[in-house]
């Protein structure tokens, strides 16, 4: 992996290079000046404009030194500045002391530079450690991203498969539901048709009920009239029964009263004697029948009764027969009307049962 150089690294590199160049220039300057010091001092040839110049003055030598490297020349310029500030008449000891001061400064600079180098190495180690951690974090992040991408891809595939399955299932359910809806619609249409038919039948039944109601009302009126007639007939029958009982009692009383005459009449009849008493008896018998309400009986019945004997004549029975014959036609009419009413009621009940079922709703 390539290393990215920051501006701080560039500044630190330049500072380190400057310090190194200054130290080198100071050493060169020191060595050159030191050669001229003391009793063993040597002369130095300076290459200036014109002819070369031989000198043994340390200050002059310090002023004249120039180096090709700009960084090293900066250190020489520093010594030159110190030398320029030094009096030209100063002795060599003062120059040496100044150089010693410069050396001490250079040593201090070296110490600071070494500390800076140590800090730089520590910083580089920290940076390397952080870079290592960063690389680990980057690798872990990449792995996590790849894993997340794989999980996302797998999830997307599963989601797509599930969605396809749900769509297919929904489509099948939708087809089934559509078929059910069609079936329900057909049933609803059939139910509506049945309802329409039932409404028509109900209207017809209502009209029949109204006609049946009219017929029942007329039948009720007829029944009421016939019941009144029946009550009247029953009252008459009761009165006739009462009169018949009275006549029966009177007949018994008369039979007891005229028993002797009847016996005489029988004897005369057996002897074949035609006496005036027979006409008297016959006239009395006719009076008896007329007085007791038997005038409605036919003359032939009276004669036949007289011929077979008054004792054999049952007035109550004949009256009842005559009354029942007179009531036979109204009774038959009443029975016919009652039967018709029952048939009409049965028809109404059957129609209600057909329309409303066996629950009896009407």
UniProtKB/TrEMBL annotation:
Keywords, alphabetical: ATP-binding, Chaperone, Coiled coil, Nucleotide-binding
GO MF terms held by the record: aldehyde-lyase activity; ATP binding; ATP-dependent protein folding chaperone; zinc ion binding
Comp. bias regions, Basic and acidic residues: 11-30
InterPro entries: Aldolase_TIM, Chaperone_TCP-1, Class_II_FBP_aldolase, FBA_II, GROEL-like_equatorial_sf
Annotated SUPFAM superfamilies: Aldolase, GroEL equatorial domain-like
Coiled-coil ranges per UniProt: 113-169, 195-257
RNA-binding is among the record's keywords: no
A biological process term (GO) from this entry: carbohydrate metabolic process
Chain segments carrying region Disordered: 1-30
Protein name, UniProt field: Uncharacterized protein
């Amino acid at each position: 992996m390539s290393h990215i150089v920051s501006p701080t690294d560039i500044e630190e590199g330049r500072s380190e290079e400057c310090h190194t160049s200054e130290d080198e220039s100071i050493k060169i300057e020191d060595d050159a000046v030191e050669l001229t010091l003391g009793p063993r001092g040597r002369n130095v040839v300076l290459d200036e404009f014109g002819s070369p110049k031989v000198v043994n003055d340390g200050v002059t030598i310090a002023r004249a030194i120039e180096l090709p490297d700009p960084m090293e020349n900066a250190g020489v310029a520093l010594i030159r500045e110190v030398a320029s500030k030094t009096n030209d008449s100063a002795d060599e000891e003062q120059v040496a002391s100044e150089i010693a001061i410069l050396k001490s400064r250079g040593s201090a600079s070296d110490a600071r530079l070494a500390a800076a180098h140590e800090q730089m190495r520590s910083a580089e180690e920290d940076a390397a450690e952080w870079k290592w951690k960063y690389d680990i974090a980057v690798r872990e992040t990449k792995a996590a991203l790849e894993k997340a991408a794989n999980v996302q891809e797998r999830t997307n595939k599963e989601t797509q498969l599930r969605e396809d399955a749900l769509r297919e299932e929904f489509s099948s359910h939708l087809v089934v539901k559509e078929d059910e809806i069609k079936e329900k619609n057909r049933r609803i249409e059939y139910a509506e048709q049945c309802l329409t038919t039932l409404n028509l039948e109900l209207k017809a039944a209502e009209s029949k009920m109204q006609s049946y109601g009219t017929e029942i009302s007329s039948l009720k009126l007829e029944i009421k009239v016939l019941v009144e007639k029946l009550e009247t007939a029953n009252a008459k029958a009761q009165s006739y029964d009462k009169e018949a009982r009275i006549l029966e009692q009177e007949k018994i009383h008369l039979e007891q009263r005229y028993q002797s005459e009847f016996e005489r009449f029988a004897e005369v009849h057996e002897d074949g004697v035609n006496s005036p008493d027979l006409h008297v008896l016959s006239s009395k018998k006719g009076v008896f029948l007329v007085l007791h309400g038997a005038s409605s009986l036919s003359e032939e019945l009276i004669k036949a009764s007289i011929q077979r004997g008054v004792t054999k004549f049952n007035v109550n029975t004949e009256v009842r027969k005559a009354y029942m014959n007179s009531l036979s036609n109204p009774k038959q009419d009443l029975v016919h009307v009652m039967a018709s009413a029952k048939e009409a009621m049965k028809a109404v009940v059957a129609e209600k049962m057909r329309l409303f079922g066996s629950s009896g709703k009407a």
